Amino acid sequence: MSTSPQIQRNSSIELLRIILMVLIISFHFIGDAYGLANMTTYNYSDDTLLSKLVAHGSGILAVPCFILLTGYYGLNFKVKKFINILLQCFTYSFILYWILAYFNPNFSIKIATYQFFCFQPGWWFIWCYIILYLLSPVINKLLNFPPPLFLLITFTIIYIQVGFWIRTQTALTLFYILSMYVLGMGAKQYIHWNTKKLLATLILSGLCFYGMILFSYYYDKPSIMRFVCSYYNPFVTAMCIAIVMLTMKIKFTSSIINWLSNGCLAAYLLHYEHQSGLYQYLLHFFEGYARFPYHKFIIYAFLIYFGAIVIEKIRSKFMSGLLFKTSAYVETQINRYSRVETR
Fold first, then answer.
1. Of the candidates 30, 16, 140, which has an alpha carbon nearest to the alpha carbon of residue 69?
2. How far is residue 80 CA from its own chain's centroid?
3. Cβ count near 227 (within 10 Å)
4. Tell me, what DSSP letter sits at residue 263?
5. Is pLDDT of 4 > 50?
6. Which of 191-195, 212-216, 277-281, 325-329 has the lowest mean pLDDT?
7. CA–CA gap between residue 156 and residue 147 (Å, rounded)
């Protein structure tokens, strides 16, 4: 991201990022606290079941919106940013595991070794993002196609995604990240709709999306939720594109929101860190509410997010020197190699 003082970040986008991360946090905890992903029949004695399904389903919108935003703005590879991402992953995997080892009765050298390489069960997104970030210079050049060919690629991606959705294929893959990145680029180039059209798209796709949840609930069909809570769900894609494009139309600047949005990656990594027992510890706060007070879930999710920001600021302060020296060394080697190649 450019650090030029002439370029101001649109705080509406940064606020959307914060909201999306809170949705991701609540999505994970709601699903695991109430076992929504593994239901074979609904317990209708639970009068908060429908609100749980709606809240959990809404969380599926967060990741597609994040990737669409990435595609809309495009990735600009920077050595320093890339190394900073790796340092965050290493800190919240390996170092955190050792810090919390005293409180973890299941401590294992074998798992500690896995942690060194950041093998986290729930971190599929960050590793796909890292690969996308590495490949972004090549991808951006390859996708510099004439409009007709780009449109053909876009419709092919949608066609494949719908096919995967029907077959209930997992979307926790690099293909999904790449495909949504391309759709984000396409949305920027070709979707220049006014607010009314975007709102109509959001409402119609939302009615289809939440209608599926209602059908699943009233006809006792938990299996339908596999289609609802699928990243390949075309109604999810349509809703997310509309949300992103509508947010683009709202422009304001807030240094506080911009500062808070810098904690998104840390919040994702920290809240979903399984091996040290941190995720299980946080989950206990959510499991204590059988009747599902959604406002408390949101408050807890925000508190986790703010806690992650504090931890990330401390981490970045301690590792600023390492980040500066490492990135400077790598950039020097790259420049030296480039000069040799041009001779």
1. 16
2. 21
3. 15
4. T
5. no
6. 277-281
7. 14
